[in-house]
Amino acid sequence: MTLDFERLARQLDDLAPHLRERAEEGQARLAHALDTFRAWAGRPESLRERLEAASTSWLLAEPLGERMDAAFPAPPTPDEYVALASDGSHIDVDRHSPISCYLLNMGRARIRYGNRPEADLASQPELAFEDERLVLGDRSDASREHVLSGNLLAALRSVREVELLAQLADQENSGLPTLALLDGTLVLWGLAGKEFRGEIKRLLLDEGIIAALDRIRAVASDRSITLGSYISRPGGSELAHTLRLASCPLPQGQPPQPIDCQRCPREADDPRPCDAVGLTADRPLFAALLAPGERSAVFRRANLEPTSIEKQFYGQHSVAFFYLRMPDGVPDEIARVEMPLWIAQDEQKVGLLHALLVDQCRRGLGYPLAVMEAHEQAVISGPEREAFRRLLEGQVTAEGFSAAPSGKALSKRARWL
Amino acid sequence: MNKQESSEIIGQVVATNIASFTAQSLELEGAPPLGSLVQTDGPIYAVVCDARTESVEGRRPVAHLSGETNLESFLDANPHLRHLLRTTFEAVVVGHGDGPALHHYLPPSATSIFAPVRLCPQEEVARFSQSLDFLKLLLSAADNSDEVAAACLRLASAAHADRRAFLVAAGKELARLLANEPHRLTAILRRIRP
To answer: Does the N terminus or the C terminus of chain B have fewer Cβ atoms within 10 A?
Structure first.
């Protein structure tokens, strides 16, 4: 046994008191945060000015038009509708493997409810081993290249998911209200810390996610199609951070000053003034505000860095979001639903998104059923990964090449004991 | 086209050996009744001895009571389930055809994987069950072979003009095969009593 449970248990003993202490403190902060949230709900303009003038690293959000403490019950679910979803999984490039390659497996689900019930669940693998598909170069600098693995591969997978959803939306000819769903956030987080240029920019952004979102938008312009990306137990904290700025004492000072987190008026070792309303995520705020099945107001990110991927590339697809409380009859949860700005600005599409998501979560017992099934189609199990490795090695040896894995990989398969 | 070819395909072989095969039913819960005579390429004749409906990917179905009272409306309300469940049935091989001849013993090779499976029409059942030699294979096959044999004889009797005469002949054949197992014999006879 390599994990020493005896020593671990002693450390775990400290967890319970810590949890209790944090829960008590959290209750007090939540009460403060709710008061501040409600107090500012009627003053969106002053809030916007405050956020825009602020100099901070927090990610912030502002309401898109509705009162920010509002809660909306779901519109009635149409008798007939179609749910579309796509999801992907991948096997990353493995430098211990005899050949460099990655495998994407894209799952999709189309489920039609109502008078002519039907479903289509399927998956499609994509194997890439050619240099031009494994390495992203940059024409303006010959020495710049990025191997498509890790976060970059995760970003490519997200792009493929949106592309597949665009294709499904394009093919949808039932004429019924249609919900197009993705899993996770709409922003390509895998590109964080990368420079958006060369092939990364072309393949993943311009001709990637942006082109796919453009395509969905074109399809949705004359059809009853709505689009959302669903996040279960979201960690998003833009509104929690916004409340910190709302409660910041700097603008109230004499003379009033714009907020600048680098000049936070606190003594060394003291908590920050905004810690009194400091929540780690937006969820508890909406757990207090929303009844089962209700959604929050629609928000959008505020005061984004000009260099952020969203600001530079997303335009009409900039991310807006609302929080959704699970309906009665399924385990309670606050979920986050992200959507492009053009959906958020269309009252009907927001209503349809809300109504159909509530129905999907009911059917999926607390998670949208179509996304769950697309995921089940995409997921590559442990034994399948192993079978893929063997197939690959078999193919390499059949061609007379050496399939010798790295010494480290070999050591895991052939130990003495 | 002869009568065998004209009967409808009800399933496809997904696992096969000389003495039995498993077929996936084309329709969910569309397995033929216990004891039915089916045939597959060869032709190879077999008697349905078991059927099951389960998840395709090894996912375990979980019960969720909802408003629907029957399977059809339940599946209509949850259309994705038809893709995730499958019905398979197992059949014991009881004979094979060789040109015009019928043999009531095992074929030289197993039926092909993915071969289509058809339900034998009544005339074919009558023709095959004119000889009762297949009962020996049936009685020595499945775990519940007595139930399968009884079900098979009840169904086959309906294909014969003189149902009673067929069952009496079958009873005599059973008495001969199970001479040393009176309890089994009685149990089967009770199940096929005309």
So the answer is: N
